[in-house]
Specification:
This protein is mostly helical. It folds into 2 domains: 177 residues; 207 residues, no CATH class. The protein is 62% helix and 5% strand. The strands form 3 sheets. It has a two-stranded antiparallel sheet. 30% of the residues are buried.
Length: 475
């Protein structure tokens, strides 16, 4: 994987996974009970007039703090928006309720608001087939996807990994009368289970399901692990021609480095002349410095496709164990001193990425470039480990296997045989000698004249003088 490709990957993964920062602070335990009491008070309002009066009251309290920058006031504003949404839900105005719930995004009440959207949307989908089903399916899936991105926590009592607790109502919507609020609902488990039914129609979900079924003779737990391995092998087979082109391009760049270093010494201090000479060198040897990035960019859609496939299939990975990992649906993290740190599998991936970077290291032309290469070799694996810390362990396992396969392929191409550079216009390969040959094997250019070389003429003249001396002695 080229450094430019890695930089693109680093920029792209946060957009996929939302790993830089949480999706909103989960509702703390000391805030759940007061919120439940307020929701139950709204449940006790029996008439429509009372509910509308309550909406007006909440809006009056929201008006002065709606745009406040103060952290506490912003939290209070989010709570009032949630309560206004619930009042509209009690009135049966579900679209209005969803609009208010969506305004709670980014606050500590976000998980509660999104689960309210889920329960309302699923109720509408089940009760009123005449409504716009696509609209409410979209509401449900978007809210559930948002809930599946919350970071795991370690349960203080059991020490097990779980999602943050969230409120869940029974019966599901406010129009069905007084409800019971469950305060210890695992938002990750609940969201994964509910979103699974919406994902079953997706192509990548069906492919995963087919691979698991194909590997089922190995056992229930092993079938999922083998399915990940088979998927990594299939992805590698598909991308092998692209990887080969990428590695050969990198090797060509490595072999042109001595010539490039000479140019840098020759045009030291003249950046314009250096850039022109460098482009002429690349053109002469038909080397494209960006050709190693294009195969990487072409492979990115496959990586993204697998990422979303595991996201879609994540509920099925809940009971799957792998070595010390209790569930492949959860991130590979361990708790140390009350904080979550990258686990062994994720660290192994970082080591494999470092070794892969060392394998494709290009000889540096200057000390500054050498320092940059060392920095990148250490920084990229560390940065990727940090970014991937919140992704499901199933994806980490897939990507680790994929990296092992790619590094092995890379080693075979770049170490087992030398790939010659394209010959320049004069027919002589880069470096001044044929690929794979030594300096002694380099054919010397023909002499400028058609006559015998000077060395041969000198030997002939010496030989003729020696014969004359011998004849004189015999006389």
């Amino acid at each position: 994987m080229s450094r430019i490709g890695l930089a693109i990957l680093v920029l792209l993964l946060p957009l996929l996974a939302g790993c830089f920062g949480a999706m909103g602070v989960p509702l703390p335990e000391d805030s759940r009970e007061p919120l439940v009491r307020q929701l139950e008070e709204i449940d006790r309002l029996g008439s429509e007039d009372d509910l509308r009066t309550q909406v007006d009251s909440f809006k009056q309290g929201l008006a002065p703090i709606a745009d406040s920058k103060d952290t506490k006031l912003r939290s209070d504003a989010a709570r009032l928006r949630l309560l206004i949404g619930y009042c509209w839900e009690r009135l049966g105005q579900f679209s209005e309720a969803v609009d208010w719930y969506q305004q709670v995004r980014g606050s500590q009440y976000e998980s509660v608001a999104y689960m309210r959207i889920v329960q309302v949307a699923e109720y509408v989908l089940g009760e009123d087939p005449s409504t716009n089903l696509e609209k409410w399916r979209k509401h449900a899936t978007e809210a559930l996807e948002r809930c599946t991105h919350y970071r795991v926590v370690i349960d203080a009592g059991t020490g097990e990994m779980r999602g943050p607790y969230v409120l869940l109502r029974t019966p599901p919507v406010g129009t069905e009368g007084m409800g019971y609020w469950k305060t210890d609902c695992d938002v990750l488990k609940e969201a994964r289970q509910r979103v699974d039914k919406y994902y079953r129609e997706r192509l990548i979900y069906r492919i995963f399901d087919s691979l698991v079924t194909l590997c089922s003779p190995a056992g229930e737990n092993a079938s999922y692990l083998l399915a990940i391995l088979v998927l990594a092998l299939l992805a590698k087979l598909i991308t092998t021609p692209l990887s080969a082109a990428q590695f050969r391009s990198m090797q060509a760049m490595q072999r042109v480095q001595p010539e490039l270093k000479k140019l840098q010494e020759k045009h030291k201090g003249d950046k314009q002349a250096m850039a022109k000479a460098q482009m002429e060198l690349f053109k002469e040897h038909k080397v494209n410095p960006l050709s190693s990035c294009l195969p990487m960019l072409i492979q990115m859609p496959i990586l993204i496709w697998v990422y979303y496939g595991i996201r879609y299939f994540v509920y099925r990975f809940e009971p799957v164990q792998f070595l010390y990992i209790a569930s492949l649906a959860n991130p590979d993290v361990i708790s140390i001193a009350g904080r979550l740190w990258p686990g062994p599998l994720l660290l192994l991936y970082g080591v494999s990425m470092y070794l892969s970077q060392k394998l494709i290291a290009t000889p540096a032309a200057t000390p500054e470039q050498q320092q940059q290469q060392k920095l990148m070799a250490y920084m990229m694996p560390v940065l990727l480990v940090v970014i991937l810390k919140d992704l499901p362990a199933a994806f980490i396992l897939y990507w680790f296997l994929q990296n092992i396969l790619m590094t092995g392929h890379q080693y075979l191409i770049m170490r087992s045989r030398q790939v010659p550079l394209p010959a320049p216009a004069g027919g002589r390969p880069a470096g001044g000698r044929p690929a794979g040959g030594s300096e002694a094997d380099t054919p010397k250019p023909p002499p400028p004249s058609a006559g015998p070389p000077p060395e041969a003429m000198e030997r002939l003249s010496q030989g003729s003088r020696r014969r004359k001396k011998k004849k004189r002695k015999r006389k």
